[in-house]
Amino acid sequence: MTDLDATDLRLMAALQRDGRMTNAELADKVHLSASACHRRVQRLEKLGVIGGYVAIVNARNIGLSTTVFVEITLSGQADELLDAFERAVRLIPDVLECHLMAGSADYLLKVVARDTEDFARIHRQHLARLPGVAQMQSSFALRTVRSTTALPI
């Protein structure tokens, strides 16, 4: 981890809340000159601490109202099998997240769909065809209680 001071943390916290603010607005919020603010943000980007900027689209408002968490257990743990699975899952646009797990499942996927029928299509066309899958269990989210992309800085 790189050396981050309190000003760097304030910069990151402010950008997590509003990544569209101007450099002048950001500088004002963290009590820096505009040039010093710009240099610090560039440094954080160059170090990879800030990985990018995105618009967070409301899935429900574009018709993707169903979130499904899929636990996948593979038939083995050989590197070739894990690599093949990970390559294949990266190609499924409906999979928002894929995590290699320690515990009862090998992988946990977060999948979005329009509805249960759409998820059945995703399952049939993509998930069921993933290499090395021995077992799959899907859990449908009934309601999202908390969702954030902001890290606790």
UniProtKB/TrEMBL annotation:
Alphabetized PANTHER family for the sequence: LEUCINE-RESPONSIVE REGULATORY PROTEIN, TRANSCRIPTIONAL REGULATOR AZLB
Domain of life: Bacteria
Pfam entry (one): HTH_24
Protein name: Lrp/AsnC family transcriptional regulator
Alphabetized Gene3D superfamilies for the sequence: 3.30.70.920, Winged helix-like DNA-binding domain superfamily/Winged helix DNA-binding domain (1.10.10.10)
Domain called HTH asnC-type: residue spans: 4-65
UniProt keywords, alphabetically: DNA-binding, Transcription, Transcription regulation
